[in-house]
Specification:
Blueprint: H1 2-30, H2 34-41, E1 42-53, E2 58-63, E3 68-72, E4 78-80, E5 101-107, E6 113-117, H3 125-129
Parallel strand pairs: 4-6
Antiparallel strand pairs: 1-2, 1-5, 2-3, 5-6
């Protein structure tokens, strides 16, 4: 009698666990993808950085169609590199500079900045301009 009760309880626990797993998997399948859900709530703006003020935490850009926009950079803004990596330096990143081509993601109103998509780091041009050291003089 006790054995049957124990087997029945174990069976009930296993059945409940498997039903919960299936229900969770179904919820994930039915849930909209983050990117699709965000695309309705966000706006993408492409342009060049015209001003960066690290002290005031502001960023100004000129869009491709000539509009000038200013944004407040708060702690929630993500700075994302070209390979989808997050910049830990944020607005202090060396790619956030005047003239850099960026893509901004804002809320649906276009006023609250959410993400700054940064360009690739350029090759250091100062190394190309430095004269080559003559190896024969070292001898």
């Amino acid at each position: 009698m006790l054995r049957r009760l124990a087997v029945g309880l174990v069976g009930a626990v296993v059945l409940t666990g498997s039903l919960l797993t299936v229900a969770t998997a179904q919820d994930k399948k039915d849930a909209p993808k983050d990117k699709k859900a965000d695309s309705k709530d966000t706006k993408e703006i492409k342009g060049k950085i015209t001003k960066v003020d690290v002290d005031k935490m502001t960023l100004s850009i000129e869009t491709d169609d000539g509009k000038k926009l200013d944004f407040k950079v708060d702690d929630d803004v993500k700075f994302i590199g070209p390979n989808k990596g997050l910049s830990k330096q944020g607005i202090k990143d060396d790619r956030v500079k005047v003239g850099a081509q960026v893509t901004l993601t804002t809320d649906a109103t276009g006023k609250v900045l959410k993400e700054v998509h940064l360009p690739r780091r350029g090759k250091d041009k100062s190394a190309d301009k430095a004269p080559a050291k003559d190896a024969s003089k070292d001898k």
